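Data card: per-record layout.
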Amino acid sequence: MTMIVYIIGNFPSNYLIEKGTKLPVCLAMVLIVSGSWIKCLINFSFYFTHLGMFFIGIGLFLLLNSMVNISLDWFGPKERIVMTSMSNMISFGSFAIGFFLPGIFVNPDETDKEVSKKEIWNFLFYSAVIVTPGLLTLVFYKNKPPTPPSKSANNFDRD
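The structure for this 159-residue chain is written out next.
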């Protein structure tokens, strides 16, 4: 779902990110957290899972597209490459972990449908609880540091 949404929203998100990173990053966290909680409604309808993944997909590409600008604003020239590389590795590493975790929490050999539904709901609930502290980004994330990390960051004005 993320890649489908990425194709549609890539260009508008880049326009938004060029104005500053606070709005896209905060919007991404709200979308990811709300999408995670919407997915917990899976036992009512499977369409809630698709809706939640749609929100998460929008939030993820906003974060992925923001990484370079965040490193430009917050890190000096020597640290930018390392920061951008690490943030990309962490993002894609967490995607990989996300593929393996359901197999740990949900028993694929379970024959009782009610037990399977409960295991899936528990997994989605715990996932939503884990991402909820990301809302602290709304309070603590600043668009730029009080002083520029380098002359190049100081000379790069997006306004």
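Known properties of this structure: The mean pLDDT is 86. The chain has one domain: 2-134.

See the next section for split statistics.
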